[in-house]
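Exercise 7.
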Amino acid sequence: MTDNPHDDNPRRRDFLYIATGVVGAAGVCAGAWPFISALGPDAETIANGAPVDVNLEPIAEGQIAKVLWRGRLVFIRHRTAEEIQKAKDLPVSAQLDPQEDSLRVKEGHEEWLVVFGNCTHLGCVLLGHEGQHGGWSCPCHGSEFDTSGRVTRGPAPSNLPVPDYVFLDGGTSIRIGVSSPDQTV
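Solution. The predicted structure, written as tokens, is:
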């Protein structure tokens, strides 16, 4: 052994080079990770864009369920036989944006109405079981919609839009956001 403190020990020097390299590489990876993960969509964006499945079994006849899809409010209304008949009987002269009830529901599932839940005037959230026809009303500006989501009064220029959706499991659930059961996003 020598008393020289500057004596080069090759094994010690190699260890320090390797340890420094490993720590440096780990630091680069740790610093780059937030930038790389920021390039992809966040979980909320993925969830908002994906189709949403809704079980219809707990929705009682006459009830309106509310769900969010792509950040937008969607009403799912389990219409009674009386509400369906009122929608079919509403004359064209009472509608501001005339449309047949049969074009707003799926054939064989007339009891289920699926519409966006914001007024087509300025986007206010609608109140259910309200208005002259027992559909929805806008508490802010007075627009009214029937049990088929068709505008019958007020400044709203059009009917409540119907999102793409399909029935699944023999009609016990729906998938909002697709136009066929086999469609993937």
